[in-house]
Predict the 3D structure of the following.
Amino acid sequence: MTEQGVGASLLRKEDDRFLRGRGQYVADIRLPGMKDVAFVRSPLAHARIAGIRIPDANRDRIYVAADLEGVKPIVAVSGLAGFKVSEQPVLAFEKVRQVGELLAVCVGASRAEAEDLAASVELDLDELPALHDMIAARKPGAALVHEHWGDNVFLETFVDVNMEAAYDAPIKVTREISTARQSMAPMEGRGTVAVWDKRMEQLVLHTGSQMPHIVRTGLAECLGLGQEQVRIVSPDVGGGFGYKGILLPEDICLAFLAMKLDHPVRWIEDRREHLTAGANCREHHYIITGYADRDGKLRGIECEATVDSGAYSSYPFSACLEAAQVASILPGPYDFPSYRCRTWSVATNKCPILPYRGVARTGVCYALELVLDAIAREAGIEPHEVRLKNLVQPEQMPFDNITRKHFDSGDYPEALQRAMAAIDLEGIRARQRQGEPDGRLIGIGHSIYCEQGAHGTSVYAGWGIPMVPGHEQATARMTPDGGLEIRVGVHSHGQSMETTLPQVAHEILGIDTAKIKLVHGDTEYTPYSTGSWGSRCAVMAGGAVATAAREVAGLAKGIGAHLLQADVADVKLVDGHVVGPSGSVSLETVAFTWYRRPQDLPASVDPRGLESTIGYKPVRDSGTFSYAAHAVVVAVDPEMGDIEILDYVIVEDGGKLINPMVVDGQIYGGLAQGIGTALYEEMNFDASGQPLASTFADYLLPGPTEVPAPRLDHMETLAPYTEFGVKGIGEGGAIAPPAAIGNAVNDALKGFGAELLRSPMTPRRVLEAIQSAKQSKEVLEMTQGEMA
Amino acid sequence: MKPVNFDYARPADVGAALALLADDTLAVKIMAGGQSLGPMLNMRLVQPDLLVDIAGIEELKQVTDRPDEIVFGACITHADIEDRRVPDVTRGALPSVANGIAYRAVRNRGTVGGSLTHADPSADWISILSAVGARVTLRGPAGNRTIAVEDYMLGALEADLRPGEMLVSVTVPKLGRSARWGYYKSCRKTGEFAHAIGAFLSDPERGVSRVVIGATESRPIVVTDAQHLIGDGRAERLDRVFDSHAAAEAIAAAGMADPIDRQTHVVALRRAIERAYSA
Amino acid sequence: MNTVTLKVNGKPASADIEARMHLADFLRDTQNLTGTHIGCEHGVCGACTILVDGVPTRSCITFAVACEQAEVTTVEGLDADEVATELRAAFSKEHGLQCGYCTPGMIVSARDVVLRMQEPTEHEIRVAMSGNLCRCTGYVGIVRAIQGVIAARRARGIAAIPGGDHRKALGPAGSGHATASANGTATRIRTSPAAPALAAATPAKAAAAPRQEADWKPQTTFTESFVVGHPVDEVWAFFDRIGEVASCLPGASLAGEPVDGHVEGQIRIKVGPISAEFQGVADVSRDEATRTGTINGSGKDKRSNSATRGLIGYAVKPGDKPGETRVDVSIGYTLTGVLAQFGRSGLVQDVAGRLIAAFVKNLEAKLSHQSGGGDAEAPPVITELDAGSLVSSVILGRIKRFFAALFGRR
């Protein structure tokens, strides 16, 4: 390892501009003549549009669906059999199907004035019965979100592997488990600045996007433009977490206005729009049964999973990715023989459900790991013993599990055992027996998961959604002064790729990272990519950069060999120099020669120069499997219901880490979001489908006092199929915490016989669980007393 | 999330502010630090014709020290109290509670008068000032009137302001040397709305024994003679004389029917007493 | 429009702005100081935190006009600041930032913590930083960076200044610099006449008639019973005078008499600084046989883009004593739109509870008044929700009972 190469905790190149307030986010873009946009949004979850009344004086600044000539709705299909297609209108007509749906768009000199215009619009909406409960929406006779479907199910899936063989298991534990609807809530919301570039005859859309190339494709299709007529610029982005991968109707509206009007337009999503109209995720419901032998050996898992997909299938991930994924990933890192899972992706009158860090895994991990602990309690053995009996063993690697997921490498039992040792299970059990002086109840819990990352063509081709990742491409190009530009189609918005991808190039070329510049976030300057999602950037963009850098290295060696008068087979690239048998020449000289003294080069020089655009795919593209064991000690206040995290341990294996500091940062940040899922974040709705969290006073994000500094331990099992043995780890931190914390809380409450099975585990839910356990105990004692 | 357009006035004194308030053809709103009103304006929940900014009025930032009490102008901020830029006469009660209000950046502008008038049941000032027996003075066309701070809140977001009136000052009694107080609030996260507040004052020299159950979704429950709950204040350990059963009854009698809410509010009070100290 | 002048990063900065422009927009849009970020625009997330008169302030809920002549420092003004310089190095070393969006606010708040707190524990630092949210880092690097800078400064013998070293004046930071006009009059800024005169939509039909969905149920329902000393027939007749019944609901009034069971009307609700005026129609139905009736109304508040539907049900029957009548009233409502979209439903219920308590009290008073032989047109006791008279002990008792009903329903 060099000080700057793969494996170095290099400080970030991007820090300085952010620390001085010089980042440039969408809202910071100033274009001459730019006007602001505000939307008229539906106040109702489900209604027929009887009329939209616009004052005559404002008519030229307000547009409704009928004005959007030639604009097509957003359609995100899935190729899975039985998928029902929804059309998400850019501006609603006939019906609104969620609160916050766009009804009209207003253009003002300032955002305040645009909001004044929006307030001048009067809506005549005939309210229809709203679906706010996915289980009710699934049932026959429910009101219909999309009438022509006949029901509200986007997609139903079913998988069965020899389930009935498990039915004679001595332990059978069934639980109803659910996770709340959440909001990704990056600190920066969405935003779009659109302008028509007259010279280039091109629509330029500045929008904070994780996936600029995908947005370009989707946008061009909705607007009927050639893709060369659309340029997406994604500048600095204040966090994405999935929300900024989506093509929004707002983007299309802004693009339409930019083409229709003779000035740039800007929409900056405010927090109320973000929470109530756009950024929703997570809501899962499980009825799950674990079958096991008395020693804790799993015989099978049977599950009915329902996901509240909201009103529309969003582009490009579709409405069914989440639920259908549940079926394939529910078995987790466990090896057992019987499995059955039925899933429903259900349409309701809520925002479309969008992928959020961890996507379906957070809910799946919560459901499965809570059931494993319930099995342990039933069997009377320590929960980690149950896991150790069932985890895939290192000698099984590579391992194809019951849903044919291909586990590439790893030692899961080792991770769990290290975590249990670090958290001091014995010590905590002793402390529990002693009791706490303040009357709180201590609980210990853990969970383990696997995170499939960078899964590619072979996985996504089967989903049949609008986007299938293929080869990831990168451009590496030396500059005349010996520096390097790297161009990638993924986007870095906190992942630190302006630092880590130069580290990868440095590893191969030896060029000082200070002289390596990452160009990203602009479809005009970067190769096509599906973008930043699915824990894929380190593996895919990292692999692509390594491949391109290697190409450039070969080209540089060719030029260097000529300058050294050596055979190319006899030269090596060492520390930024081409080294031959009898001397060396720096890459600066090589670059200077190619660009500025071509007269020194022979006619036979490779005409590709010092530049390469090339694609990369891992040897096998079924995905990398990183994993971690989380262990946590909590104190539950049985009087107030408060939960405090006393200690948190994470043992993680992400294969080779390009920059360990950055990986730690991803884990810390993921943990904070996982704690949000576990304890704080909840997007509630009332019976008429009104979202009840429109501010950060209603929707609680964990702050500094709600998140502990965990203790981290790293394992390093190289990925067998990827460059450097790297695995994707970006989402993992957010997957395990609800399960680990949930198990710890249930461990703390086991004296009451109380269990919490819904996240977030709020003080009220804690107290309700204790209360209902006490009541059932009293009833039991009463009955027993009567019987005695 | 931008406010409606409004006119803005910065009166030089209370008289000028009252004159502006007197115009009943307009929706006139008073703003002090604006830390509660600001969000409501941004969200267009409040749509005034005229915003009267009283934060520049000198009288409202004055402190008057009297033998038995101290009078704070309405625009004294939470940070002024937290940092003890104004004298503390409550044996540390007000600075300690001020330190836990929202966040520092909010405390640098948010005012005592504004918080009380906003009348959020979960806010801190209404509960702790009720516990120490503070009074508020309101000035309007008919002159001044002074009422107990707990009577100032009528219900959620509703203060007892008559037409044309504004809050001008808060009067806090000086506590006796052996006075003890306690304050406990239960929040889901630091700085957020409280879900249960317990507060008490035991001041045997002045013969005062008060208990407050706050964050009830409405007015706080104030027991002005709380000897039956916490004794006369002479016990060394007040928590040993605290009658939690009687407190639970008081809370139930006040109409709080949900057993979990009752439990958390009793516990908040008990913890306020357990953590009591004399500064 | 009005010229507002502040001292920003050491230099005078003026702009012609509307009074409604908050400080963050002033800095970003008129001074192009885009380092101050807007994350929530309601004072919770802390991304917009800047220094005003030297102390941290939320620029998204502080109006620029209220800070006339104040000293403002943004992250751009901290380039040469000693503490900020140390913090920048520490944030980078500890990886205290990822996407960078919360970072300027973090630096401003962290600087305040470093200056004010002598030897804070890790927990105290976390509490002090709790007004700044970060979605990326889990705060680990941020807290370590602050710890490191404090430790290094204290080791160099630089002590904290409790309360900060900048603030001596009382009152809200940023306020009080502008010279108020002499003779006690107010400095007043009027909304610019150049501001677009926004036309209102032409009033169409008063409102859509409430649909008679059989399965519509109010989300929140209060029930109340009372006995009046008056014969059933007369009480039943009273309920037929819909205008009078409506007038018992504070702020409600009807446009006329019902036609074919429909009547137009409005209800004006004022809660502290919030006011809403729901205009709509009601359907009235009565069943002579069972002596029950309903008033089913719906209305919209144009200003807040909110709507409400309400259902008043009543039943009258003979009381225990001759000549007495027992009245059962249920009032339910559903609120939709902006006013409904908050988590603290308890507050809305408190307001609704008070409104309905006033309705019942007025109803009782009117019926009693009539049964006492008084003028049938006697005015209701409570005409506005925010009237001080609402806090009579009678009403408080009722509120408590309504609460009992409410909490029991959770």
Q: What stands out?
A: Residues 208 and 280 of chain C are 7 Å apart (CA to CA). Chain C has nine helices and 13 strands. The radius of gyration of chain C is 29 Å.
